[in-house]
Amino acid sequence: MITKRIIPCLDVKEGRVVKGVQFIGLRDAGDPVELSTFYDEQGADELVFLDISASHEGRKTMVEVVKEVAGTLAIPFTVGGGIHSVDDMRTILRAGADKVSLNTAAVKRPELIREGADYFGVQCMVVAIDAKYDDELGSWRIYTHGGRTPTDWEVTDWAKEVVRRGAGEILLTSMDQDGAKNGFDMGLTETVNNAVSVPVIASGGAGAKEDFVDVFEKTRADAALAASIFHYKETSVEEVKKYLWEKGVRVR
């Protein structure tokens, strides 16, 4: 049986970890290097580092911070934000990342996914999808630039497209649930799971350890990602994993 993964996420802005609700109202959550070390020691399976303002502000991911974080970790490390070319990917991977995450750049130029997959392998290519339910569309619409810009893409159409182009994994964030702490978006998660064959990481809405059990029992998500409940010590990776084992969900 494939074991489920628990992944803390560091949303980084100007060198500090931040967290908001539905992508706005950001508040400070700590130093990325200190938090990375803490999560590694707690037994996190992977870590995701997203420079959430990089695409919006038109600058590159903070390579020096990535190097510092990578130097503390013994677990896989995914980095996204401001990655627009194969050269950018190479820089991030050389800085210590194991995978790169594309979002805005992939929507702008989808062929970038295939270029990265051909050069580094599909196992290095994560596509982050930020989705919000749209009544007019009758489904979830894709957003870019840190949730600021709506696109014409419907979520399953885009998920299938990125996999066709070489994405090895999807990081799926519910903008409706992000920071709300009332549970993952089961409908969104399972809709995308049904559309693709690659691993899907559920993100957005974790508020308690019970939410992790729900997402793994009610969807086929391969991993669950959370930020604020870990950053602000409302629960811990260790506590979540112990609870999952008690409920019969296999974790690493």
UniProtKB/TrEMBL annotation:
Listed under subunit, the entry gives: Heterodimer of HisH and HisF.
Major localization class: cytoplasm
Name the catalysed reactions.
Answer: 5-[(5-phospho-1-deoxy-D-ribulos-1-ylimino)methylamino]-1-(5-phospho-beta-D-ribosyl)imidazole-4-carboxamide + L-glutamine = D-erythro-1-(imidazol-4-yl)glycerol 3-phosphate + 5-amino-1-(5-phospho-beta-D-ribosyl)imidazole-4-carboxamide + L-glutamate + H(+)
The record places the active site at 11, 130
Family assignment from sequence similarity:
Belongs to the HisA/HisF family.
**What's this protein's name?**
Imidazole glycerol phosphate synthase subunit HisF
GO cellular component, as recorded = cytoplasm
Tell me where in or outside the cell this protein is found.
Cytoplasm
For this UniProt record, the keywords arranged alphabetically read as follows: Amino-acid biosynthesis, Cytoplasm, Histidine biosynthesis, Lyase
Report the EC code(s) recorded for this entry: 4.3.2.10
Give the SUPFAM superfamilies listed for this entry. Answer: Ribulose-phoshate binding barrel
State the protein's purpose.
IGPS catalyzes the conversion of PRFAR and glutamine to IGP, AICAR and glutamate. The HisF subunit catalyzes the cyclization activity that produces IGP and AICAR from PRFAR using the ammonia provided by the HisH subunit.
User: What GO molecular-function term can you cite, just one?
Assistant: lyase activity
Give one Pfam hit by family name: His_biosynth
Lyase as UniProt keyword: yes
Q: Which InterPro entries match?
A: Aldolase_TIM, His_biosynth, HisF, IGPS_HisA/HisF, RibuloseP-bd_barrel
Signal peptide coordinates: none
Concerning CDD domains, the annotation shows:
HisF
| Lineage: superkingdom | Bacteria
